Here is the input.
Amino acid sequence: MSPVSVSPDLVKNTSPLVAGVWSTTSQAFDVHNPFTGELLTQVHSASGLDARDALSAAHAISPSWGHTAPEQRSALLSTLHQLTLENSERLARIITLENGKPLTEARAEVEYAAGYLSWFAHEALRIPGDARRAPGGHRQLVFHEPVGPSLLITPWNFPLAMATRKVAPAFAAGNVVLIKPSSATPLTILAWAELVIAALDSLDLPRSIVSILPSDNAAALSTALLSDARLRKLSFTGSTSVGAKLLAQAAPIVARTSMELGGNAPFIVHDDADLDAAVTGAMAAKMRASGQTCVAANRFYVHHEVAHEFMRKLAIALDSLTAGDPLIEGTTLGPLINANEAQRIESLVSQALHTGDAHLFYERSLNPNLPASFSPPRILSRVKHHASIVTDEIFGPVIPVMTYTDINECITQANDTPYGLVAYAYTNSQSIAWRLVDGLEAGMVAINRGVISDPTAPFGGIKSSGLGREGGHEGIMDYLTTKYVAWQ
Ligand code: SIN
Here is the structure.
């Protein structure tokens, strides 16, 4: 094995956790630091057999785990919430090491992740039901029961928060979980799994309700699991193309699915908006994780009267970012997940500039000694609505700006995409705000806010952006099935 640069104090176990037991396999894959490019460590890959073993154990424990008292499941999540916060600094360092986001953002992610644990600790106690008289006079009882063994596939951009967003409602509802983390960032969840085991042991709950299945061969795992009807739920966060394949794969076993897929968020700035507030919102909506979020503002529609001033102010805000080593306090712009991603964005921008689909309004100059995984923040002006830089999900720090005159034309253009995750808008007019809320095709709309993600609210999209909701009261319902009892 090559020398590694992540210490066992940070991540003790680098192998799969199969039904609560750490197991070692012969196959291993590399995990790299996106800033230095160094090998962090090797992680043992879960095999198809490990996945089947995890599912067999999940199937066996599901009936009893599903019948635990809600207050026990709530206690598990509260304990995990506390342990997550107590280990915040360690988890944040691991996130930064394997994902590259600056430490301040990694700390914010841990807090965000813990928010799901705390919210669903309470939701476990509020699972709804109903009792009523049928029109014919007999009784009708409606219960909500755990859906069953759940496969949770999580992405690299929020290695902890996207896991707790799925695990917390799954546990709250009484389900057993099999987690498949991204092969780019498996270490955070392997470290967090130690806390899950500690929380389970402290409450005398069965370890076998959790499996972690790291692998660089996701297809082998999903083939093994999605062909087995004992699996009852699939939740995935990632690209629309992979989500669509997983949906097809899950169809024969008719598994419940939640899909949190791609986005192409419009960010609208009307002529009556507070431009300083809009710039602050744009920085939050665009620059978090260097633009690598599915809720990142992807297309900017700015009223022509204020477009130049908005871009000027935005350029000043981008100038104030400090690019560098994400482990150093004060860094506010880290690398992308790898150099290939930076290269992909470079091609997208060059194509737009060379074809005349866009003009370069601003480019943040970066220290040439920074690694190739950095991508410079840029503002593009006079962008054509059908340019790839507008229709593709950029997933990086590029801001294409289009102008509009009429708000209805703007809404039509904002909706002209297969995606429908989130839309942002800045205006000081109530009537324009309502027109936007009513007219925008998106699962989430943010008015005068650049941050929409919140454990207490239903996160999710429409159209090609996905199915189901995570967070809020709605989040737990995706992990429950309805049983209706007719009683004479
Ligand atoms: C994502 O990028 O997939 C989620 C971002 C968020 O929860 O804010």
